[in-house]
Amino acid sequence: MPLLSAGGGAAGDPVPIGMPNCPTSCGGVEVPYPFGIGPDASCYLPGFNLTCDDTSSSGESRLLLDAAGTLQLLDIPDVEIHFLYAQHSGDIKIGVDAHGSGNGTFLGHGPYTLDSGNELTLTGCNVQATVKDGNITVASCTSLCQYRVNYNYNYNNEDNDEEEETQIGSVVSPCSGSSTGCCRADIVVPELYDNQVYTSGRYVVQLRWFGWNRSADLEVLPVRVFVAGKGWFDNSSVYTDLLQTRRAPSKDTMAVPIWLAWGAVGHPSSSVCKSNHSERLDGTRRGAYTCICKNGYDGNPYLVDGCKDINECKDEGQTSTGCYGECINTEGSSMCRCPRGTMGNHSIPGGKFSYKSNLIFPVTHITIAVGGQPMSRGMTYHKIGMKSDLQVCPISPINPVMAMGGPSIPPIRAVARALP
User: Fold this and answer.
1) CA 183, 186, 188 angle in degrees (round to 5)?
2) What are the C-alpha distances in Å from 255 to residues 66, 72, 213, 232, 394?
3) pTM of this prediction?
4) pLDDT tens digits, 357-370
5) Residue 390's pLDDT is what?
6) What are phi and psi of 225, to 5 degrees?
7) Which residues 6+ apart lie within 8 Å of 30 measured at CB?
8) Distance CA 349, CA 363 (A)
9) Lowest mean pLDDT: which of 126-140, 150-164, 311-325?
């Protein structure tokens, strides 16, 4: 029997995206509150203001996270998921000294942190890159280049054997070994930071060179540091372009995808989780938290009345609700019962619903003559409440003859119809 549903409530009401009279899209990307764009500070939570750049030569607007324009937001999947899909322009810029060592910064502002769906990628010879968040190392790897010695013999002059040393930067496969000219390491995000550790989301990238001939190393392969979404460097067009020295990498190669996490910091949760049906969820960054709708609700927990009741009967189906009978939506939940007039098990597929007997003893009037005087009495249907089993109830009809000592009328039994 197919799932029946009843009730709808607020589930059909439109779910708000942003604050009233505020723009909520840029370049095809929806911008839900607490994010916001434009000069009106009421359109976003402090720290969550974004820039809609419409000055691009392509004519397409770009949603930017930073003023420098190096981080473009490609998608804000859902304010309850708390992740952003962005694109970083190029590698991370690092100022190095004469010895090839130095530091650079990445992110460093706002409520954003690196997600564990990213990895550190380093290209170059005999260098090490380390990413630190405060005093926490979140990724580090070392890239080496192989030196191979080839012996070429001059068979015409065996007394003048020639030894040729050839420097090889491996470009055979992406970071497949210890001497391949690149390395990769996952970004590690601790489950919970120690209370003594404060992380601001400002990442420092440290570069250290330990070779013996830096000029020769740079001729083999330029040093570039990337933080990118996992799988980016697996693309053959990407690693082939980066592990060569004939030309600069293409613009498409240097458009680096990245996943960012976010959370509110420095705001009381009562002023951030505004919906009556929302609750606070602590994050991994100390002092940071996000808001989610409570079970049974969906929408934007950062807006007043932003979390709307989910119509489980309509939206989730039989497998999710576990209801194979009549599903009834309620505020924040749902209930299930057998269809009216049936019995069975509504919690399993094919619950063997069977219709209850619907026999009614249709006695509407009985007239019996006693001593020449008719006696009459009307009768109506007898009803009983809904039960799990068929109910048989005795119905006693009028029996005036038996009262007079005459022959009795046999008692009558009928199956009564259940109350609606």
Assistant:
1) 140
2) 16, 10, 31, 10, 83
3) 0.70
4) 544 444 444 444 44
5) 34
6) -120, 130
7) 17, 24, 76
8) 40
9) 150-164
